[in-house]
Every structure is written in C-alpha cells, then in structure tokens.
Predict the structure.
Amino acid sequence: MSFLQHLLSDLEIQFSVSVFYRSASFSEIFSYTAYRQLSQMFLAILFFHGSEYILALSSHGRPNVTLNSLLISKNYLFAMIFSLLEYFIEIALFPGLKELWWVSNLGLGMVIIGEIIRKTAIITAGQAFTHLIRVRHVDHHELITHGIYGFVRHPGYCGFFIWSVGTQIMLCNPVSTIAFVVVVWRFFVQRIPYEEYYLRQFFGLQYVEYAQRVPSGVPFVS
C-alpha cells in the first residue's frame, strides 16, 4: 500500500510540474512582450501590402491593377508562417530571447526605414514603377535617375530587403533573420541582372552610364 501511495505521490508531483511549466509557457505567449512584438509585426505587414496596392491603383488605375499588386505569394506566406512558428516556439522555450528590446527596437527601426525607402521609390517613379518586370518598352516608360534613384538604382528592392529582414529582427527570430537575409538576397541576385538586361535594351548607353555611377542598393550586387 505504501508503494502505491509513493507512486501516486510521484505522479502527482510530475503532473503538477508539467502543468506549471505549461502554464508558464502559455503566460509567455500571451505576455506584454508577445503582444507588442506581434502587434508590430501584423501592423507592418498590413501597412506594407495595403499601401503597395493603394499606390499601384493611384499610379496605374484600377483596370491595370490586380491582386498581384499585394505582393503575397505562396513562398512569401510560407516564410511568414515559418517565422511565426519560430516565434511561438522560442517564446515558450526561451522567453528571455524575446526580451532583448534593443534588438527588437533595431528591427522596428529597420522596418520603418525600409518602408520609407520603398514607398519613396514608388512615389518618385510613378508609372515607371511596376511590380512585374517590363520586357517590352512602352511610350510612358522613362528612366528615373532623380530623387532617391540618384543614390541607388533599385531603391524599391533596397527598401524591401531592409524591411523584410527588419521584421525578423523585430521579433528576435535568429533563424528566420538568417533565412530571410539569404533567401531575399538570392532572389534579388537573380532578379536584378534579368531586369537590367531589359533596361539596357530600352535605354542603351544612358542606362549603362547610370549603372556605372550609382550602386544597386542591394549588398554585393553590382
């Protein structure tokens, strides 16, 4: 009988410890830190995509704009879902990691700066800015070299690179931060030469000279 009592006592202790840690994990998930960081994340995503669509409408008109202007692809959704899964796992297992507010605030600053750079690029370029690469020249397509384009050739890409990586630094997601840097950088490494091939076809020596004196805006992409 004493053996059974001892066994039941051990099981009760183990169950209590398990419940304690589980409740602690849930309290971390619903803490102020999680509320603030996730709120910033969702607001950043909502503003980014909503403003992209609104600016596309204002520049090109409703007949020429589709939901593709929201810039939400399957790969993008997968990346964001992965980053949220990482966040929930880490805040449950390593809550102290998410309390690095200087890191989170750095990421928030990057999100704001990246957003400003990209939206400035869209507004400056006007109708010349499109979400799809032009492969045929149109009459109203002109080479934009003034404003922010006088500092970087692809401020839209520069802004998105900073914004996307900033979202993960803001969440203090070490794995997703590295993944976003690699994946987004590789995407632009392939996209920029492809786009600039057509820009050289459209604008000839004018674009060649422009590319020689103005950097791309994406690290290690000439």
Remarks:
- The longest helix spans residues 174-203.
- Helices lie at 2-29, 32-60, 74-93, 101-125, 155-170, 174-203, 205-213.
- DSSP finds seven helices and no strands in the chain.
